[in-house]
Write a structure and sequence with these properties.
The complex is a heterodimer. By secondary structure, chain A is of the alpha+beta class. Helices cover 34% and strands 28% of the residues of chain A. The longest helix of chain B is centred in the N-terminal third of the chain and has 40 residues. Classes of the chains: A alpha+beta, B alpha+beta.
């Protein structure tokens, strides 16, 4: 009886371990960033905005947006194929309300080799802007923007085939904030 | 023959029971949000079904006359409003957000949530499918007042909401609560 209990217990333990591993692997493979670690900043922020448009809502939007309306037609084109739009934005009254340590949990996820940082990006706004692409078999499957200004912190996470051009066109639409992103043009010989 | 009839009746009763239960669950979310606010902040709401209906009529009339913003609600199939006026909403905003999200995220999708701790302002917009239409639940709180609005939107109006979630969410609350137009 005791050995039967041990046998079953061992089976359960192995199954649980496999399940945990599977969950961890699937979480690591997804381009969706876990941003819950930033939630505590809401208590210090003068304004917090949290947008979450999942695949179901995007599919709904695609169905309801009309081709006759030029604006809706363009949004439809931009979001088709996307599986999620997630935005977290914090505005602070004073400088120094968030630190690099607050961003550490997000940066750790972006250090995964599947994420690569696009270097030739700048913003019309002051501060530091970083754009990352997540690749899988030479296909873009996700994009992340980390915009850290002195009094403002914004993280945008788009899931699906999306590039910088799509992102800039989505600014100010579907909950994506105005980031002022512009790809920096390579310098001409005269400028160098 | 009697057995078939009995089975059909049983199925009908079961179907009706499921429909009633699911519609009760749908209604219950609005009420449970109102109760969450009451419990968390120790306040009491005012139900204004008649005012809301009047508001809808005004909105429809206004839509006919001037078109524009009021038109958005005029196309709504139903509206439920609970208002908390001249009460105190002091408490941990982030804790309230967690409580609210935990109670709704099984059935509703959070679309946009805006918080302002210094101004003690909060706005939450949740969405869910309801057949070929959509339910939108907008919860707004400021230091002295709060409003819970649930509307049924057509696909066309949902498109407006999704294009500009923040602006449209505020407009929905305004349209549902301002009767004097």
């Amino acid at each position: 009886m005791k050995s039967l209990f041990h046998h079953n217990y061992l089976k359960l333990l192995i199954a649980t371990s496999f399940l945990t591993m599977a969950v961890q692997i699937s979480q690591a493979q997804t381009p969706r960033l876990q941003l819950n670690s930033l939630d505590h900043l809401a208590a210090k922020a003068s304004e917090t905005v949290d947008v979450s448009i999942d695949e179901r809502l995007i599919q709904t939007a695609i169905k309801i947006f009309k081709d006759e309306d030029p604006d809706e037609r363009e949004i439809k084109k931009l979001v088709s194929g996307l599986k999620g739009i997630y935005v977290k934005s914090f505005e602070f009254e004073k400088e120094g309300e968030y630190t690099t340590a607050d961003l550490q949990a997000v940066r750790v996820q972006l250090q995964d080799p599947a994420w690569s940082r696009i270097v030739n990006v700048s913003s019309k706004k002051d501060g530091n802007i970083e754009v990352y692409l997540r690749m899988h078999n030479d296909q873009i499957i996700g994009l992340a923007v980390l915009s850290a200004e002195l009094k403002e912190l914004t993280i945008v996470n788009l899931i699906g085939p999306v590039d910088l051009e799509k992102l800039t066109k989505l600014e100010g639409r579907m909950g994506v904030p105005e980031l002022g992103i512009e790809p920096t043009k390579p310098k001409t010989k005269n400028e160098q | 023959m009697n057995v078939i009839k009995k089975r059909t009746s049983l199925l009908l009763v079961l179907g009706l029971a499921v429909m009633v239960q699911s519609s009760y669950a749908f209604d219950d979310d609005f009420n449970s949000v109102v109760k969450i606010i009451e419990r968390f902040y120790g306040v009491k709401h005012e139900s204004i079904p008649f005012l809301a209906k009047a508001g809808m009529k005004v909105a429809i009339t206004a839509a006919r006359v001037k078109g524009g913003t009021a038109r958005r609600l005029a196309e709504a199939g139903s509206v439920k409003v609970a208002i908390f006026e001249d009460q105190s909403f002091t408490g941990d905003i982030t804790k309230f957000r967690t409580v609210l999200n935990d109670s709704l995220t099984d059935t509703w999708s959070p679309l946009i949530q805006t918080l302002s701790v210094p101004n003690r302002e909060q706005c939450y917009i949740f969405l869910r499918n309801n057949g070929d239409k959509f339910n939108v639940l907008v919860v707004t709180l400021d230091p002295g007042d709060a409003t819970v609005v649930q509307v049924t939107l057509s696909a066309k109006n949902l498109a407006l909401l999704m294009k500009d979630p923040d602006g449209m969410g505020k407009a929905l609350t305004d349209d549902a609560t301002i009767v004097d137009q």
